[in-house]
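User: I want to check something. If I give you two sequences, will you return the structure for each one separately, not as a complex?

Assistant: Yes, each is folded on its own. Here is the first sequence with its structure:
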Amino acid sequence: MEILTDGTLPFIPEQLPATADAGEIGIAVDVGTTTIALNVWSIADRKRIAVVAEENAQLKYGHDVIKRISFAIRKPHPAEKNPVAGESQLHYCIIAQLEKLFQKAVNEAKNALPRGFQPKIKTIVITGNTTMLCFVCAVPVKSLAQAPFNMECPFDMTTTWKDVREGTAAEKRAELEKPSQELLNVFTSSVVPDDTSVYFPPCVSAFIGADTVCAMVAASFPIPGSASNLQNESEEKAPVMLVDIGTNSEIALYIADTAEKKGRILCTATAAGPAFEAANISCGMSAIDGAIDSIALDKDGMIVPHTIGGKNATGICGSGLVSSVATLFEHKYIEKDGAIVKSKSTLGDGTACIEMTPAVYLSQQDIRNLQLAKSAVKTGLAYLLEKSPELPILYIAGGFGTKLNIEDACKISMIPEELSERTFPIGNAALAGASALIFSPTLRLRARELKKKAVPINLAAVPEFQNRFLQSIDF
């Protein structure tokens, strides 16, 4: 298994093209619930030449997929100034943002190409969870909100950017209203030619999306029950677990074939919420300069924050939230149940908080939000761990997971203690997998096979799930 550092692709079986236009580029997109990230690749030499990322503009419609689905299926109130159906708003919102991100990505790519060559987008691969891909392609999402939680489109399809933009890429699609003139202007000036090939990897189920499949591709998950000739596929027969921690945290467990039983891939998802992206934290911010990413305590017990870039603290990022709370819990500033007991200050509404700096604090609600998020992840991990014939290796994927301090995650009981020495971050595996699919028809077929072998488990339908979740809230 190759650790996927920035700009690294998983093993690609195809050879580099003998001749290729040095200006041709491919773009991989990971449409996350909270963040959208793009990698731009040179087709000729498979070098990453630009990276673009920003907060998902759909956050104004809800921080998680449940709230956005609810918004999508609601009927506009007649009293609204410009009543527009929710599905239309969510589709055009994400498409307009992608148009602008593509423009930004192409502008950055210009500076990395050989002199005299202009970027020409040859292909785009878009991954994400099932709900986000439905919004991109204007696929109805009502069935995602009610049992038995069927998806109207499994994706695994190649289309054009024109059809994606117009909401006509999928067989089953929502009736969209005409876009505003402002959006029409954005589309008219699109940097992406209408006939550009766009590939959407397969989704496993309503809540196990293409991002999980791409992450499995990047992590070289073997395909149970079949021999593989992929050079980079692990020969390890021990179970392998993968978790992509985010607003919607997906978990996959590979169990190898044995003489008695066929191997399988078990998948599940937990609604962790946006705490790991610090989106619902009082002083939360992205992991950029000025964000607190850890703290220490001096001899007098005073909090000494460490910030990214060594700048003055302006907020706290998701990994910093985990590390800070772990330190505060270890030194008994916070009790096992999350209650603040030392260095307590009071906010204007009378609730408790801990001052990190004069400008940054952690409220009691912030700690509660982290507890709910980590409990969701711990419950999913612990449940699949019980299905594993032996202790697995755990790979943590995603931007948050890359920066996560594993020891701190164990201190707050987010990662089961028995996995502490077997846990490794592998970077943004969903985006790395999507990037590989730009270049490899073989890996696209592999993604399809992984999807077929994946068995989704709906944790909400597990009878003891609620009790498991509640028992995992304490640190």
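And separately, the second sequence with its own structure:
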Amino acid sequence: MSLILYHYWRSSASWRVRWAIELKKIPCDYRAVDLLQGAEKKAEYLAHNPSGYVPCLIAGDFQLGESMAILEWLEEKYPTHPLLGAISNERAKIRQVAETINSGIQPLQNLDVLKKFSPDKEEQKKWVQHWIQRGMSVVESLLLASGNQKTKFCFGDSPSLADLCLIPQCHAARRFEVDLSAFPRCNSIFEHALSTEACIKSSPEAWQP
């Protein structure tokens, strides 16, 4: 079954899914949605994903939005390179880290939220920095408490769902001028991930128009 992924090159939610597809070696047709031009609000795209957000996955007649739902679907359909642990407690901890980012940081840095919050770019940046710093502090604490401080990724030596959320968020943190040295465990995972093939191929730099 051929997959189609509608995505935006700099979207952290899109990067999560691109990375999973790379890790699982799934054939996919990528279609860019230009958020700066408002392409996500046009009827053609809304027919696929009524929320008007990216990413959106198409598999035949099946259409699915929301990156976490897409990642869970991919995990079930394509079990190669599992993104969740074998033990239920570890799976829950992986999901906790992922959702701390997905629910507590990433939505608050979206373009729609920033525009609604303030038209002033400096005020927008301060807003984003606050929520990134708060959320990253939580993630740092969770990772330090996990007992996996010496692994290459959050919960082992290969990427999990937690890493697929963390690395794009670290990338966004740099873009918003948040000092990652305050989060050494997160930063070390980020630096390692940026040297791996699947991460590089799915990164914004690889898809920048």
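Because they were folded independently, the notes below concern the second chain alone. Strands lie at 3-7, 28-32, 56-59, 62-65. The longest strand covers residues 3-7.
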